[in-house]
């Protein structure tokens, strides 16, 4: 019988992040916003555990010595998972952060991701519609459930397009456009269709986690309204394991070692 969590039981997060030696890179800067490239293996926000002090926010506020200055008022209107790399927008003052927060809340910001999945996804494009709820027995996992179930699942909608299918072993390079913003949405949706993202430690098959040395999920594009002046912006951050819709030759060689 599965363990259950009582209403008074405190869930303890004992995760300690490994040291991340990769730098946070500034892609664009003006008086109101930054666009940055977050490396895989870096928290977006510092954790409650004092050992998890290093994060995107910490590096922004305190600077990266000799590399990037300190932005004391920097705020994150959105986050990326620890293992996910890629583009993030940062507010540099109260007004711009408020404007960006509103855009995320009303879902006018469009986000695109690139991921490498186990196996061959059958359809060239499609939608994954599956409600998502917290897994009460296994923090920090989420689970697929009916939107009307007792788990109080929230609607989850992900659009996908296959960019490339790879041999030996079978893998699919996929572009995702999430239309909702649930925790771990793309990771659990990929597992739900039988094609988990390579390197994922929470949503996996018997071998998918070991097929990569990191989570192969990258936030590649953001389309949003600049908080000052209202002009539309489309920002792109190249994927470290894909170029022009195909897995890079270097990555293919590394994957076969």
Summary keywords:
29% strand; two-stranded antiparallel sheet; globular; Pseudouridine synthase; disordered C terminus; alpha+beta; nine-stranded mixed beta sheet; disordered N terminus
Briefly summarize what is shown:
With 257 residues, the protein is of the alpha+beta class.
Verbal overview:
With 257 residues, the protein is of the alpha+beta class. It has a single domain (25-255), classed as Pseudouridine synthase, CATH 3.30.2350.10. Helix content is 13%, strand content 29%. It has 4 helices and 13 strands. The chain has helices spanning 56-62, 94-105, 185-192, 249-255; strands at 25-29, 33-38, 85-91, 110-118, 125-129, 132-134, 142-144, 157-166, 171-178, 217-225, 232-236, 242-243, 246-247. Strands 1, 2, 3, 4, 5, 8, 9, 10 and 11 form a 9-stranded mixed beta sheet that branches. A two-stranded antiparallel ribbon has the order 6-7. It has a two-stranded antiparallel ribbon with strand order 12-13. Strand 12 (242-243) and strand 13 (246-247) form a beta hairpin. The protein is globular and about 45 Å long. Mean pLDDT is 90; it is low at 1-9 and 252-257.
User: Which oligomeric state applies?
Assistant: single chain
Q: What is the percent of helical residues?
A: 10-25%
CATH superfamily: Pseudouridine synthase
Terminal CA distance reads 41 Å
Number of domains: 1
Helix/strand structural class: alpha+beta
CATH topology: Pseudouridine synthase
SS summary, helix count: 4
Computed over alpha carbons, the radius of gyration is 19 Å
Shape: globular
Number of E strands: 13
Order of helices and strands: EEHEHEEEEEEHEEEEH
The CATH architecture assignment turns out to be 2-Layer Sandwich
Question: Could you list the spans in which at least 5 consecutive residues all have pLDDT below 50?
Answer: 1-9, 252-257
Overall pLDDT level? 90
Q: What's the main sheet like?
A: 9 strands, mixed
| CATH level 1 class label | Alpha Beta
Range of strand content:
25-35%
